[in-house]
Amino acid sequence: LNILGPPPGPWPANGLTVRTRRSVDQNLTLMVPLYTGGKLGNLVKAASQRESAARASIGEAEADAALRVRGAYYRALLAAEIAKVAEARVNASTALVASTRAQFEAGRGIQASVSRADAELADAGRMLANAQNDRAKMLLDLKRAMGVQLDSDITLSDVLVIAPPTDDLGASLIEAARSRPELLAARALLDSAKAQAGAARGAYKPQVYGAAMADAFAPGDMGKTAGGTVGLIVSIPLLDAGQRNAEARQMEAMRRRSDAELKAMELRVATEVRQARLDMETAAANYRAAQTVLQSFEAAYDVVGLRVEGQRCMLLDG
Fold first, then answer.
1. Taking a C-beta distance cutoff of 8 angstroms, is the pair 225, 18 a contact?
2. Is pLDDT above 90 for 131?
3. What is the pLDDT of residues 27-77, one digit of tens each?
4. Which residues make Cβ contacts (< 8 Å) with residue 53, sequence separation at least 6?
């Protein structure tokens, strides 16, 4: 005798009565959901959205790794440029020492000027040593971010260039909202929570399953028997001591929490985009100002050089 139980969800189950004597039974059961009030459909959707959130989380980890590598690379480029400046200062100080010492030996200078030039060279050497140390540390940070051996050789092929952002702020915000992995994961989790809430509401509705069973039974004292059962299982929720209501309220609370987390994530991403844009614009403005100052100093140096060569002025130690 086959016994069809109530709808168990996506896992079919059956029961049968047997004698107390030894027997062998082989049973095949097929159960098809005909109407579940959206419960099973929402459970499938919730699982699919959780899978999407997991894939987006992988993308977030990959983006974070790429960001760390890029940040370490640009810091290494900056350290290399600072080391070049320090080297140029050492070269200039070395030339100043040679010129000052030559003037002193020719009787056209004083010992204090030589001592001051030596001190300037020593300070320039100190700054160069610090700059080279920082450059070596930045290269180590870059290797660690890349996950390569720390004693491997890395050559920086680029030159640090600062340029203002090319697109407008609105386009940057739209692109961030569209492609940031953490936002994609948060949206998928919200959709999953909505589906879970829908599944909890679907449990209030009747559950209808179609079932078919084929059974082969061989008791120890009788011949083999075979049979089949086809049935329609209908479950109507009447009283569950508040279980369905508690589950529905829990799923709704989870949906609201996921919605709040998504909104907080959107606000954080928009803030990061705006701050990054301000940093880029400020860096570009400072770079342009430094270029202007450099051009002014170079022009003044050329003018002084021409005046000295024309013997229209002379250099004095300050």
1. no
2. yes
3. 787 878 888 888 888 999 999 999 999 999 999 899 999 999 999 999 999
4. 184, 185, 186, 188, 189, 192
Quote the pLDDT of residue 5.
Answer: 56
pLDDT at 179 over 80: yes
Amino acid at 70: R
What single letter denotes the amino acid at residue 7? P
Per-residue burial over 19-37, b if 16 or more Cβ lie within 10 Å, else e, is eeeeeeeeeeeebebeebb
Residue with tokens 């989380």: 57
Handedness of CA 252, 256, 257, 259 (dihedral sign): positive
pLDDT at 8: 54
* Mean pLDDT across 272-286: 89
Q: Which amino acid is at 89?
A: R
Its pTM stands at 0.70
Could you give the dihedral angle defined by the CA atoms of residues 250, 256, 257 and 259, in that order, rounded to the nearest 10 degrees? 150
| Residue 11: both structure tokens together | 């896992």
More confident residue, 215 or 110: 110
Q: What is the mean pLDDT of the chain?
A: 84
Q: Contact, 33 vs 209, CB < 8 A?
A: yes
Assess whether pLDDT exceeds 80 at residue 13.
no
Residues β-bridged to residue 212: 30, 230
Question: Does residue 7 contact residue 209 with C-beta atoms inside 8 Å?
Answer: yes
Q: What is the token pair recorded at 10?
A: 């996506």
**Which residues on neighbouring strands pair with residue 24, listed in sequence order?**
218
